[in-house]
């Protein structure tokens, strides 16, 4: 079984910028939800993927990701629930791991996270100095919650 093992953190500074080795743009769309799982479409510059994620168990979850043609991704994104998630992802190596720093655009503009994928749930990690509070298990930092909260703020302001 394919498994994603991931931890998510807030950032406390922009010191990570000095270590960036790769940067690319992403657009994600939620095609479907089922139970505690989801089907996502991702357009990543010259690549596109369809990803099926199962329910979480701690920091792990089943994840199946398949490359699809760019044209298919664009059509599938048009079928996805709105809004799409747009972000710039920066890859920063630190202490033997590649950290993904996500800078959100569009409806989640201003929200920034650092994520790191692990080989197993108990894998020890050395936290970089630019890492803050861990929010892996905090439902307030899930994309659906952030989008709902941002929409409420925008409605209250109009």
UniProtKB/TrEMBL annotation:
This is CYTH domain-containing protein. InterPro entries: CYTH-like_dom_sf, CYTH_domain, NeuTTM/CthTTM-like. PANTHER family: SLR0698 PROTEIN. Residues 2-148 form the CYTH domain. SMART domains: CYTH (SM01118). SUPFAM superfamilies: CYTH-like phosphatases. Signal peptide: none annotated.
């Amino acid at each position: 079984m394919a498994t994603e093992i991931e931890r998510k953190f807030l950032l406390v500074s922009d010191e990570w910028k000095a270590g960036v080795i790769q940067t690319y743009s992403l657009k994600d769309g939620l095609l479907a939800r089922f139970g505690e799982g989801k089907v996502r479409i991702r357009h990543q510059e010259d690549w596109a993927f369809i990803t099926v994620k199962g329910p979480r168990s701690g920091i792990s979850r089943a994840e199946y990701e398949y490359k699809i043609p760019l044209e298919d991704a664009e059509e599938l994104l048009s079928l996805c629930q709105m809004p799409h998630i747009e972000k710039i992802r920066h890859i920063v190596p630190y202490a033997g791991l590649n950290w993904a720093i996500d800078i959100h655009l569009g409806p989640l503009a201003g929200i920034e996270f650092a994520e790191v994928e692990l080989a197993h749930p108990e894998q020890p990690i050395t936290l970089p100095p630019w890492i803050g509070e861990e929010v892996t298990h905090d439902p307030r930092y899930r994309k659906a919650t952030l989008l709902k909260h941002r929409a409420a703020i925008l409605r209250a302001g109009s």
